[in-house]
């Protein structure tokens, strides 16, 4: 009985086998990787939701903060260094462009300094002058969430340190340390949305949700099936053609 349709059977060449052994595992691995990412994002969102239900931990030193896992909610007492604020450029909120105001904050318990992301402020009609930020002075208590400072795209030049607030593309901890003669940690605290402020705060944990990764996984597995089907169809040969070779 003829295989793969009347008068046809499968002729496998070493080239076809080589292509199959290279491409099919890659497509399958990409599909399983997307499934792994979806599971990770699901767990991450679950952990964050659980963390929101826990009472913020009162922290007095950076050593205590360093011992905490990321996304932990904390309560800090101290004062803003009002003349030490950086404006992160090209930050978006509800489709509008603006800045994130990142201020240095000195802990009252240890006099150590860390960065506190206070939230988003809108861009005016033009980039300059920079927006006026609400004044902050004296001892305050804030609640926020511990996050690692992003280090994916660092654009911070020495000549930007001429006056404050600094307009930067991203935070470079080492260069900030050299300017302020402090030792800033590589994490910051994102001010909680319920804290009193005129700045907007919306801190997404993930840009791509787990459902998107599941969709990508289906696409990769579909491509693997389609690739296998094409290889089989391309390897079909008429029985008479095989026998005459």
What do these coordinates show?
The protein is α/β, with parallel strands linked by helices and 245 residues long. It has 2 domains: 71 residues; 120 residues, no CATH class. The protein has 5 helices and 9 strands.
For this entry, give a set of tags.
245 residues, alpha/beta, two-stranded antiparallel ribbon, 5 helices, 9 strands
Strand order of the largest sheet: 3-4-5-8-6
Order of helix and strand elements from N to C terminus: EHEHEEEEEHEHEH
In one word, what is the shape?
A: elongated
Beta-strand percent range = 25-35%
Short description:
The chain is an alpha/beta fold.
Chart the SSEs and their pairings.
Layout: E1 8-10, H1 14-51, E2 57-59, H2 62-66, E3 73-93, E4 96-107, E5 113-122, E6 140-148, E7 166-168, H3 173-180, E8 187-191, H4 210-234, E9 236-238, H5 239-244
Parallel strand pairs: 2-3, 3-7, 5-8
Antiparallel strand pairs: 1-9, 3-4, 3-6, 4-5, 6-8
Helix pairs in contact: 1-4
